[in-house]
Structure prediction request, 170 residues.
Amino acid sequence: MHRSRLTAEAKMVFSAMTPDEVWMEEALRQAQRALEAGEVPVGAIVVCHGQIAGRGFNRNLLDNDPSAHAEMVALRQAARSLGNHRLLECEMYATLEPCPMCAGALMHARVRRLVYGADDPKAGAVHSVLPVLNYPALNHSMQVERGVLAGRCGELLQAFFRGRRAEQKS
Ligand SMILES: [Zn+2]
Prediction:
C-alpha cells in the first residue's frame, strides 16, 4: 500500500515535468555515464521530431580526443543517423552551456533550438564568456532556453570537481 502511494506520487512528479525537463533527464543520464567513466560529467542529446537522434557524453579521455565533448558526440551521431550534416529540425539538450567549439558546431549543423542546464562561467559560449551562438554577424539564429534542471546539472559537475580536488590533496 505504501509502495503504490509512492508510485502515484512519482507519477504526479513526472507529469508535472515540462517536455524540456523530460528530455533534460535523458541528457543527465548521459552525464551520469561520463561520471562513471571518470570524465567531466556533461551529457547531451539531439531530439528530432520527438525522437532521440543522437546521444553523447564527454569522452575526451576515453577517445584521446580533445573534440569529444558531449555535444559533439551527440551531433555526430544524430547527423549520421539522419544521413544529413544539417540538423534543421533538431533540438539539442545539453546539461552545460556549450563551449565555443560546440556552439560553432551547433551553428554549422543549423540546429533549430538549444536547451541547456547549468551556465558555464569559465567557457560558456552562449552568454557567459563568449557570445558565439547567435553572434549578430553570423548568419544563423537559434532559439535558446537556459536553466532547465540547472541545479542538478550543476551539482553533478560540482561533485565531480570536489572529488577531484580531494583526490589531488590526498
Ligand atoms: Zn564543448
The longest helix spans residues 150-169. The CA atoms of residues 103 and 133 lie 6 Å apart. The two ends are 47 Å apart (CA to CA). The mean pLDDT is 92.
